[in-house]
Batch of 2 targets.
Target 1
Amino acid sequence: MYVRAMMERLDYGFRGFQVPPTARRPRSTRRRGPSKKSAEVGQVCAFELLATLAGKLLQDSESSASSNASEGMNHPAFSQSVVEKERQDEVKPLKAKGIHNGSCAECTVKTEMESQRSIQKCLEHAETDCILECVSVNDNSCSDCWEKVEAEVKSKRFRWENKFEHHSNRLVEIPEDVRESCDGVIKNGFRQEQETSNSGFMASPLNNNFIFKEPLDLCINSPALFDSNSNIKSPFSGGLFPSASFSRHGNDNKLGFRDDDENFLRWNRVWTKSKAFKPPQRCRRIRKLATSKCWKVAPNLKDCKHSRTDEGVIPPYRKRKTCYSFVRYRHGSLFKRRKYFGWGSVITSDGGFSSDSVSNSPDKGMDGDNLNSSAKLHVSKDSHVKFSIKSFRIPELYIEVPKTATVGSLKRKVKETVMAMLEGGLHVGVLLQGKKVRDDNRTLRQSGISCEESLDKLGFMLEPSSMQDSPLVCVGDPSPCKTSQPVRSPETPALDSAITNALHDSLLTNNVNLVESNHDSNSFSTDPIADKITTDSRTLVTVPTRSAEALAVVPVGQKTRHSELVQRRTRRPFSVSEVEALVEAVEELGTGRWRDVKLRAFENADHRTYVDLKDKWKTLVHTAKICPQQRRGEAVPQILLDRVLASHAYWSHHQAKQHTKHHQIVTMNDTVLMASNHM
DNA sequence: GTTAGGG
DNA sequence: CCCTAAC
């Protein structure tokens, strides 16, 4: 019965909503040394973070049928049209702007004209990814701004909502704190469209009414926000940001905002973080995918009219079979979120910047040799630096619904999942060489984030507001988090392994395995992964896995940094059924044929690579050799261990034998050959 | 791309 | 699990 029930469900594993090219440089690239850009060292006075989480929530297909103005906004094509329209009407109200559903690539478009809208666009991004735009500002103007802004902010509760109401023009351009942006977007609701064709999910804001509840500390100097033909009026004309205090620099958007680190919110009470700044490490294939080759493939780029080829665009991870399939059959849990939200690449863009800004050629930017390629710098003589962080990925989601569920319910499920994830809000963290910069009052210069070199080591991360402030707590070892995560949802008993097993079992093995998978799931109940919430926390803590990469955005590159920044994959203990499948396969195929083993017994378990299997076998052999008291983790039936030993012994011998045989044959052949030669 | 091993 | 050398 259990088995049957299990089979009746479909489990979906999302590694993020399908989308825009987000890119992550290849590992090799990440390790490369620091960027060798010759740009002048910019003194970044302040940086702006514009972040948006374009997430999407769904609605019932039925309910979604109800159309409203926002309906059309969900259409992929809409985005472009809106953009075009905006070009014609620079003073378009926020409302009109907030409905893009473009791809990330679009967000990266930086024409002079659009640069000012980049932020907004990011916000509009419905790709579940958070797009951040960072714009450095002039030192001088910045300090002035800070003071003024501070005063202003203190005397006034700044609400995005208010701004919007009072200034229906480009206020939308104002950068927002990531968490607020995301929060706002989420609160607004998203529409989710499922593309059955590719099992992808796309998210789009239902509307553009972003409401931010918390006061903002903003330092704005964004001439670009003003229409040259219109009265120059600060978007914050409410008095918050005296335009007089801002200097203008060509088309640069100079924005600055302060982010109080102390406000690091906790995303979810259960969320915890670990190596937050470690970019997720997906399976090798994925990493390898992130090669220059992939860049060319990014289809969205063309459509988005990338005006800057130097903008690093990381290819989507999707569709890498070896690494987590998008859709998975699963048993048990409704969903699981893995790892961090995702990481993004930090990319500076030169859009609209001074002519002397350093322009990076595509090669440069994506070339594996340049670590900083992902973090492009454009430093002008006047110390202006503009850079952007693109596309934070949403954590991997696991959703399970009955086969009989409607598409609408599936959408709802996804929505709920995303909502739950974002409910707590997001917070932005700044990392310098992997270390979080906590003092918000320090200037960038003081923090050492004022030169090209530092930018190379600069990273941003999105964290659930509920996260603890010590990202490293659980680094490398989820167990601590595990124990600290008592919360467990009864409704989500299934575990990763269980799911995997279910999948595997249902497709490859027998009922026995199914039963075991059930058992496994139970046995894993203590595993954080099992619990959705726990999983989340753990996820955040331990891994920005494959699709659900961490929010941490780090300029990947240096080798030294590599170890610190690269996120480790989520640990996924092998279940008994998995072990059995492995043993069975090895018994048949022997060791040394891991690829075959993988194909035979774990083909559908995308999270298990042949290397994983090989490693597991290695540990199994070791486990079998030690006394039970020394064994840890889920107990593997002695019977299986015996089989492991037997197999190991057999194949060791067999291989040796074969080798010997082969050697003998060769020798013999040589002998024969020699003999024949003599003849 | 796979294997094999050390970390 | 990660990372690499070696193939």
Target 2
Amino acid sequence: MKKKITMKEIARELDVSISTVSKALNNSPEISQDTIDKVQAFAKFYNYKPNNIALSLKNKKTKNIAVIIPEIVHHFFTLIISGIEQKANELGYNVIVCLSNESFAKEVINLETMASGSIDGFLLSLSKETMAKKDFHHLREVINQGMPLVMFDRVSDEIYCDKVIIDDARASYNTVKHLIYSGCQRIALLTTPDYVSVGKLRTLGYKNALKDEGIEIDENLIVRVETVEELDGKVKSLFDTEKFDAVFGVNELYAVVAMREAHSRGLIIPQEMSFVGFSDGILSKYAYPSLTTVVQHGFEMGQKAAKMLIDRLESDHTDDSYKMEVIKTSILQRESTKPV
Amino acid sequence: MKKKITMKEIARELDVSISTVSKALNNSPEISQDTIDKVQAFAKFYNYKPNNIALSLKNKKTKNIAVIIPEIVHHFFTLIISGIEQKANELGYNVIVCLSNESFAKEVINLETMASGSIDGFLLSLSKETMAKKDFHHLREVINQGMPLVMFDRVSDEIYCDKVIIDDARASYNTVKHLIYSGCQRIALLTTPDYVSVGKLRTLGYKNALKDEGIEIDENLIVRVETVEELDGKVKSLFDTEKFDAVFGVNELYAVVAMREAHSRGLIIPQEMSFVGFSDGILSKYAYPSLTTVVQHGFEMGQKAAKMLIDRLESDHTDDSYKMEVIKTSILQRESTKPV
DNA sequence: AAGTGCAGCGAAATCGATTTAGTGTTCACA
DNA sequence: TGTGAACACTAAATCGATTTCGCTGCACTT
């Protein structure tokens, strides 16, 4: 086992001081070319790599950033992580992933453990429980300690920090208009409870679009689903009790499940019923028929969020004007809706 | 901004030495109860948290482990990560995620940057390029440095280390037998090139099952797909040129795409054609009809891998007998196959 | 009164790097 | 011959913790 070599050992072997080794490796002008060559050759031969921990301690920066997400088994979040990872690596940072599993307590623990030295800044998307509780003391605490925080997707107005979001209300508005223009009149909405900020905004966009098109809002067509378990049941009862010609799901799963239900009731898609989902993922792409979706550009969102965080880390002082980036969405027309 | 407080500052404020503070915080018996109370009260009031970096430097352990995977936008890998994260957190470790993006170069870079102090051990699943090149010097190097490595899913015989795998050959064998027992005779196989270890093993299992059941192997029914781009074309030409009554895909995507093709050709599933995929994910679950799959228990695999790594990290010495855990698979019968 | 033991605390080394403030030698120039 | 700059290098502080060893003062024994 060829152990790691340190500067101390190089210094001892070559009979110079540690400072000389350090400077030689950094090509300092105060070291003679002879010594530089000698030290660098020796270092290369023994595969010397500086110890990151020691550097972190000295420089007070770790070149690590933490991303805390509610869940990873979720295509949108994996896209975001890919984007974060790509951008962070490009800029010389590593990404530590923490999962809150939608739990407030775990979110707090993650923040606390990470905040004590392991990382330089946070990227965070709120857990459902945190949004429901509206308790953000843990976020304020890390911000107060001077640690930058960038929130993405699931954010809160109550926290002052950089943010990257989707314009959910507008995206939803556009989507519903798209459905209307394609000939749909009674559009059912499968959404989340209102404490999920994105669900709330998408619901808002839905209502506004109907209003603007002079279509009355029928609350019976709005179904709020809290957990995956109750999804099937709520969808079935919607089909049982209401008449409608389109379904808009605030995520792809909701839309796909509704589409399956329509399938099994023998409805022809999209002639008799249209379907649109939010957040384009593999489910939408490979559903049968393939699902028209709102593309959220998660990869880009991850990149932007990472860039904002690192910009702040590397800017000299804290300017206290926080930025808010809005990622544009687009509608990807596939087989589950009629052409406009 | 309430800055972080250090032991030094506590010591200065309370007019004791740093060593006393350290010992008081650790409830050392050589400090009087009075002093302990005083120090701990002060520390709590100023929300003192030890600096992890300093601890890492001193203890020569970081309590971080790195997991390097080829891709994250992949349900199986996200399940594994969830499992790793859960188990690692439970045992007091953080997880640093690195993506190789199926690239050899990036895998090497990830290993090198992580190995210089940031982490205590690796969890790794090989990139396609690495498997194709069969160049494992980077793995040998970190192992030689005394850093534990656990490989999972995509592993190599040439590296001596702990491993967690699926018994791919057997799983595939069982699946094909299942298809045969359900009445299928000509089973097409959608697989990867042989350099992908899991693809190779699954192909082997397929062949053995046919052999054991006295069915001749028809190489024309075995389609090797390298990239997603060529998937559609190869599937179409399979349908154009061959006759068969079942498709076995070595991942869920292959199976679902084939099923879509069958759909559009008006075939009735599963009466006229059956479909099975490997690695149960959302695609399988929400496909129409839902896809019968081989469940790989990725979460469990992640947990096992994390546990193996941490066990080795915390065992006193290196015993050089490496373990290999095999995760059992199971067949999840859904709508795309006939009951046996 | 001198020696012993212990409670309670502090000084300093250590982990592996960087960096500032010197130190010692050589050589040029007045 | 003496002075000072230039050069090449070193000692030591520093980052924030832990830990070993040593020191002080008091109580108690003999």
